[in-house]
Amino acid sequence: MVATALQDLLAALRAAHFVHWTNHWASRGEAFYGDHQLFGRLYEAVVEEIDGLAEKLVALDVQAVEPQDAIARMVEYVNTWTAEGDILAQSTRAEQDLQDIVAGALAGENSVGMENFLQGIADAHETALYLLGQRRRTAAKIRTAYDVGTIKRILEQTLSPESEDGHITVWAEANEVYADFVAAEDFNRSYVLRQLRERLRSQRVQDVVIEFDRGEEATVTVTLPRD
User: Fold this and answer.
1) What is the pTM of this model?
2) Model pLDDT for residues 146-201, shown as the tens digit of each residue
3) CB 85: neighbour CB atoms within 10 A?
4) How much of the chain is in helix, strand and coil states, percent to nearest 5?
5) Which end of the chain, N or C, is less packed with Cβ atoms under 10 Å?
6) 113 and 86 both lie in a single domain
7) CA proximity to 6, closest of 49, 68, 46
8) Which CATH number fits the domain that encloses residue 83?
9) Own/partner long-range contacts of 172-175 (Cβ < 8 Å, ≥24 apart)
């Protein structure tokens, strides 16, 4: 039982390292530098934990480093965490799950040395979860006060030359922003989509869709990331 819990923890740590490192590369937008640094701090901290736990398990003659089993466990965690959507949510879910996984390992019969080692991991990831929570609260404030307004302006600026009558209505609901307008006769949907995606890139937009309602009346839907 202990071996299984420790093997699971090792796989989860390796999966968390992969997710945090990937998010370190994937950081972008207005908060790029801060996010890049945060995810860098998270993935670098996990390396020592992975190495320390693997060496302790090998010393106990536990086959936790057998690659096929380890990879299968890692893939399961990575698939679960990356399904969360935006990168902050992915890393937060990883850290939340790690809290439960470490608690499961601590519940077993461990040596004093292993107990202290696991408690150190628990403390470190509690700090990681706190840092991600602070960043997510900041992101929510930015999206409420800044992103939606910026997206509205981008939609108005981009669609004005493409609108037949110059009338554009833009509004927001939940995590989506909409724009209604009447398209010009030479309206090029692919070109406008490219323009919008390029201009909205810094806003961490998940999707942009143009749908025609009746005739030349079109609606643009912009989906924002959820917290």
Assistant:
1) 0.62
2) 567 888 888 888 888 888 777 888 887 777 888 888 888 888 888 888 888 888 88
3) 13
4) 70, 15, 15
5) N
6) yes
7) 49
8) 1.20.1260.10
9) 172/148, 175/223, 175/224, 175/225, 175/226
